[in-house]
Amino acid sequence: MSSRLFAISFDAHQPERLAHFWSGVLGLERADDPYDGVALLSGNDGGYRLGFRPSQTQKAAQNRLHFDLTSSSLEDQQETVARALDFGAQHADVGQGPDASHVVLADPEGNEFCVIEPGNNFLAGCGFIGALACDGSQTVGYFWSEALGWPLVWDQDEETAIQSPNGGTKITWGGPPLMPDPGKDLHFDLAPDDDQQAEVERLLSLGAKRLDSAHGGDSAVLLADPDGNEFRVLTRR
Q1: What is the CATH number of the domain that holds 216?
Q2: pLDDT above 70 coverage of the chain, percent
Q3: What residue stretches are annotated with the VOC domain (predicted)?
Q4: What are the residues facing 8 on neighbouring strands?
């Protein structure tokens, strides 16, 4: 029994508008799967989609999860930044300092993301969406490795990273201290390989917690990982 990462999903005040932004920046096509929001095909070896689900939650702090986009050259990095700005992004200050070689931006709803400089060996071969960088503990990295069946590709000094056996986007956790819950953020949508309830019980045994609001829409079950980040277990797809 295991789960597949079906989507990395944004809380979105305007799902169509936000999907249009990310489709334009990343060059992604819309998926036609049943989904309670808008979904884009990521085109990444990790096999997930980008989801945009309607939410009225207000963003209260820096996101715990953000994308790191890769670059093949300085010109490529500059082109990605310029394209994102054209689609409605803004520069963001998260304390990176004036000498940072990566560029920090925020999408039209304030979700931060980074355009990484060329030559980053850790993200080599991971695709345009090189990493989903998460604020989180070593424990939560271990949890998601077991939950998804993605092996650890980094585990040092309380920092962890996992990657699909097929390659593609890495998911990384930076260790303590844990940033406050931003309210509006990105979340995981999981698709069980078989029975939804049996998979929920497996995830609970790994350290997930069932939330008081048991259902996350579209017959999904709403859980939280060991760091308190909400995620959904969908019906089988």
Answers
A1: 3.10.180.10
A2: 97
A3: 125-236
A4: 50, 188
